[in-house]
Fold:
Amino acid sequence: MGIHGIFIGVILLLIPINSARAAQSPIPPELHVSLEMRERMNELAAQYGFHRLETIQKLDQLLCVGAIIRVEAPREIPSYYLDFRSKGVQRYPYLRPFAKKMMGEIAEDFFAEHNLPPVISSLARTVPYQIFLELKEVSDAKESNPRLRSAHPDANAFDISKSLEHRLMNEKELNTLRRILAYREREGVIDAIEERGSFHITVSPEYAKFLYGNFLTDDELIEAQKEECQFVAVLAEKNEYPVKKPAKKKSPKQKR
Structure:
């Protein structure tokens, strides 16, 4: 057999090995990126009348009327930790109430099996902060496309880190979280994506309707509390995260 034949034989031997590895991937199919699910979640957010966090003023307004609430780690028995090393968690520790409830349920399920609290690495984001992350290529969402934009500025999305408080999750812990998230996604209450260093979870607005029955839109909440929640105009946050574009290289002067 010539060298060419040996090379082909080696390639043919590797094909089933690689196929088997792909079939044994620990990531459930429910946790793969689905543009259809992202579109669906964005459609539901619009249908349920969510206001996006366009500015700090909007965030304060939604906080005042109760559309979003502050997230604090449980004190007595912490079923989850908040990663305050994350700028997003530092600046915007907020979620919609139904998203916070789902986050707590997922964390409690994990805690029940491992007696360890998962770490929450991202919560709500303002639109300017989301755009900043996109320009830095930290996020693959597209704020300019209403169908493919991130759910973080709708305040119904959060991230669970693959790191615990003092170490990385081991394979058993990762598989537990994968199983919990895949089950919830099959129930239709979340859209979960496994990313390189975390799990991104968007909670369906339909879960809010399931919890509360009569669901009020943000406009209805604002109208009902317009006396209690009057605001003075504040500077928008658009310049809070300036991203410098690379300077254009000057072309060398031609010699005359």
About this structure: The chain has one domain: 37-224. The beta strands are 69-70, 81-82, 94-95, 119-122, 157-161, 190-194, 198-203.
